[in-house]
Amino acid sequence: MRSRKQGSLVSNPQPRQRRLGPLRRIAQVLTTIEITIGAVALIAIFVLVFAQAAQRYTPFEGFAWTGELAKFSMIWLTFSVMGVLITNRGHIALEIVDTFKNQMVVRIVQGIALVIVVAVGAGLTYEAWSLVTTQSIIKSAVLRLPMSLVYIPVLIGVVSLTIRSAIAAADVFINGPKLTDYDESEVTAA
Fold this sequence. Notes:
By secondary structure, the chain is mainly alpha-helical. It contains 7 helices and no strands. The protein starts with 12 loop residues before the first helix and ends with a helix. This is C4-dicarboxylate ABC transporter permease. One of its GO terms (biological process) is C4-dicarboxylate transport.
């Protein structure tokens, strides 16, 4: 192995970590925001659906807005965490390719899959943007909330998905595939 002065074949990971430090912190902050939005939406769904169920057994008139807000919360939950799932590899994926011995094939398949996600995310971003800009005249049935406001979390979620997928695709093409750890008994049993 060569010394550092002659140009080491082994790269030093410290400068790379320092360069990615601010980006990593920004990603962590965005992830925290997205997870918080998702958690609030999940709690809202739980509380609102419980309130709807409880209203059936009370002599009081029910609140119609609980169903509408629960439906919007479901939409916000779904779209707010899409980017986080891509970053944390929590999305649904066919990981059979990860078991291939040829890492170049795995790199190409993972990279192409992420590029496809970027393309779909770009299309979703375009459509979400058009919904936000054109649907302000339409109001929700009970809350009278402009539908453009309902679509803002959707827009944020698909923008996050697109950006995170593009970064993940570049990472796979530059640094190689991200492999899932398998237990030998799981691989042989399948």
